[in-house]
Amino acid sequence: MVMDNGKDPMLEMFIFETLQLSDQLEQLVLNSEKSDFFEAAEINEIFRIMHTIKGSASMMFFDSISGVAHAMEDMFDFLRTSHSVVVDYSRVCDLILRGIDFIKGEIAKIEAEQSADGNSAALLLDINVYLISLKENNGTSLPGDHNSEAAAAIDLNWDMEVVPDSDAFDRIGGNRFKALITFEDDCEMENIRAFNVIHKLGEMGELIEHYPADIEDSECIAVIREKGFEVVFAAESSREEMENFFCTLAFVESFELMEIVTEVENTKVQAEDLSSQSGPEVLNNKEIKSEKDVDNGAATPVKQSLISVQLSKLDQLLDLVGELVISETMVTSNPDLLMIHDKENFNKAARQHRKVINELQDIVMSIRMVPLAGTFQKMNRIVRDMSKKLGKPVDLMIHGEETEVDKNIIEHLSDPLMHLIRNAIDHGIEETPERIAKQKPTTGIIKLEAKSEGGDVWITIKDDGGGLDKEKILSRALEHGLVNKPESELSDQEIYAFILLPGFSTNTEVTEFSGRGVGMDVVAQNIEEIGGSVYIDSKINMGTTVSLKIPLTLAIIDGMGIRVGSSIYTVPITSIRESFKAREDEAFTDPDGQEMIMVRGECLPILRLHEMYKIQTAVNEIHNGIIMIAETDNRSVCLFADELIGEQQVVVKALPKYLKRIKGIGGCTLLGNGTSSLILDIAGLVSIRC
Amino acid sequence: MSEVMEQILELTEDTQKGKFLTFIIGREEYAIEIKFVTEILGGIQAITEVPEVPDYIRGIINIRGKIIPVMDVNIRFKKEPKPYGDRTCIAVIDIDDLSVGLIVDNVSEVLSIADENIVPPPDARSGFSNHYIKGIGKVGNTVKLILDCKILLGDEDLASHTEAS
């Protein structure tokens, strides 16, 4: 169940992320509890966090964690869809915090290389019971004769609360039983019958746990029908009496009753610990904690080789190094030095100094840059597990994982990618028989590709599945009142873009992986946060392509410096096709005054930077300067500048907001000598000239 | 409610209240409230020109890795641009998280002007229509023109410029 190798990087990542998310959640819940109200945004946030924890935990096969997360997600799904609900917030907070403690306890166990075997039955029951009572109070209860049972469930819940769970097992006297009950074939609503059993058992003795744990969920009906309903309980009565009791229950077709014998011999040594390991168990956070304490004494937890640093500190560091570079120049080119004639020792020291600073600068830059490989590799695991679970053979092809992006971006990428991949497998790739019918290879292919183009990083996720159902999306969008244009004017892309809106899901079934309509809006939100955009394209039966465009800002790019007058502009290397010196007679002008040049049979427009930006320069003749062919999206333009300065890596910074947007400028950057340089946005320039 | 908060804010800014940074542009002495000023950079740094902005925006400079635009107040007031010299400096002001450097001829001093010594500028109807001036402070025999920083940075020109281009 658990990875035996504690140093598995995925496990480490999972531990790190889940702890971070639970901390975040805890903070959120505590804040909301103070104000005694959950904002809609907070509910959505909690819901997303639970969704993510659930997803990654089930990927790692930590079923206990994903179970708890699932239950909490259900609760918040209800809260966020029913707006006018009277909710006992402190109760909700208690439940969530218990859930967080449980998850943290499990994580601590995983960290200490133990199996995450905590039992969350009591917690799950509490959450479900509360959810039912919530639904009932707000008149959204399940139809049928469910109400009385639900009321009973609340009573039951009270019983559970009176006896603190941690000690419940110890306190419960009498005999312990395990019973497997099968209901009559045609009785229907098995889960409600099961509720009835639990309720009746509550009168006889103490319920300890039952399976399926989640009997409120209608999905469990099938499970009960197939495998029966399993309860573990304690009662003073003897086995015969219990057998008689089960015979009196309505709709029960047959049952197996087993008495459980607890090992009492070892209790002296580790009474508490053992009670959770032998026989049935009721664990809650308290017990996990005590267990954890024991563990800490014995086993040394796996040390994390990752530390999380505030990005703002890295920013400060980067800025300081920039300052250092400037002050170094100020020292070495200090006018006072002109007085000294023999400077050999000084020069030596200065060279050494500069070398160290350069190294420092490189390191600081590289700290922030992380290749996408780690994030992409994580997807391999998701694809593997999902294709197994869903029985769809899927291959993941990864390209360009060496593309480096800013740490900031990586952090925002992993969630969206995970959701996109899940969506692609769950909804995109068809079931095998369907694929055979469509004469496609049985194995679905998902291509995950990263490339930097023109200073942007593009990440595309392409599947060869069924494609998006345009009609279904459109009708769903109309249903939700999201369409504010005549249907005929909507482009395909605009229709596909509807799936990025919150709460939009064409999938009616909620599965473990996706279908709640949160996935795509998480994607859109995360990408927008870093100033990027999401494009969706799809062809029926050919598949869907989702492209994420991460903008110039935040990234470090290779740039080519060009000088125009006294200004230095930086052109992203990726957009440069070539640069050359033109002959005097090569350029020609059309009647509109557009200057053009013929390059190997291709006629390209010339854009004189000094004219466009009204910069004073001595270089006005086409043959004195340099022509640089810049290209984006297969459109090219020739930039005319004074000269090439050279190539260097630059950190892209946004222009001050005060300056608004300037056409053709994508951002600015600091040069080694402390001055700043503007980065040309080739796409913008091309659209000016073409 | 917001009034109460403003009062509290004002209390915390008490030490800065009534203090002004004065500088000279042309022949006049101007003053800005000290609470807006984050630092003063002596001497003119390397300014990177930025195209397609109003002429009073001289470009951008780099202060410890932070890139901020600089405005020549001389040109902003539609006076003849003056060459920068030793006494020219950049006063960095910060309003609503917006940092802008002001190029001024020279910074003279920081002084206190009591509220009662500040009079409102003449009414616009009397033919005096300099909307940058928020008040006129009397210090001894001299007057200081107190600038309204928000209007100084006010981007109606900038906005119209970018729209036009």
The chain-level structural class of chain B is alpha+beta
Please state the overall shape of chain B, judged from the principal axes of the Cα atoms: globular
Low-confidence stretches of chain A: 1-6, 140-171, 262-302, 508-517
Arithmetic mean of pLDDT of chain B: 78
Oligomer: heterodimer
The CATH topology of the largest domain in chain A:
Heat Shock Protein 90
**Count of distinct structural domains of chain A:** 4
What string, H for helix and E for strand, traces the elements of chain B in order? HEEEEEHEEEEEEHH
**Rg of chain B, Cα atoms, Å:** 16 Å
Poorly predicted parts of chain B: 157-165
Mean pLDDT score of chain A: 73
Distance from first to last alpha carbon of chain B: 43 Å
Give your account of this protein's structure.
The complex is a heterodimer of chains A (690) and B (165). Chain A is of the alpha+beta class. Chain A has 4 domains: 153-282, Alpha-Beta Plaits (2-Layer Sandwich); 311-363, no CATH class; 372-550, Heat Shock Protein 90 (2-Layer Sandwich), CATH 3.30.565; 556-689, Beta Barrel (OB fold (Dihydrolipoamide Acetyltransferase, E2P)), CATH 2.40.50.180. Chain A is built from 22 helices and 22 strands. A 6-stranded mixed β-sheet of chain A has the order 14-18-19-17-16-15. In chain A, strands 6-8-9-11-10 form a 5-stranded mixed β-sheet. In chain A, helix 2 runs antiparallel to helix 3 (63-81), helix 6 (146-162) packs parallel to helix 8 and helix 15 (373-390) runs parallel beside helix 16. The radius of gyration of chain A is 32 Å and the shape is elongated. In chain A, 37% of the residues are buried. The model of chain A is unreliable at 1-6, 140-171, 262-302 and 508-517 (pLDDT under 50). Chain B has a single domain (17-164), classed as CheA-289, Domain 4 (OB fold (Dihydrolipoamide Acetyltransferase, E2P)), CATH 2.40.50. The termini of chain B are far apart. Chain B has helices at residues 2-12, 73-76, 149-153, 156-164; strands spanning 19-25, 28-33, 37-42, 57-63, 66-72, 89-95, 98-104, 106-112, 118-119, 133-139, 142-147. Chain B has 165 residues and is of the alpha+beta class. Chain B is globular, with a radius of gyration of 16 Å. Residues 157-165 of chain B have low confidence and may be disordered. Chain B has a 6-stranded mixed β-sheet.
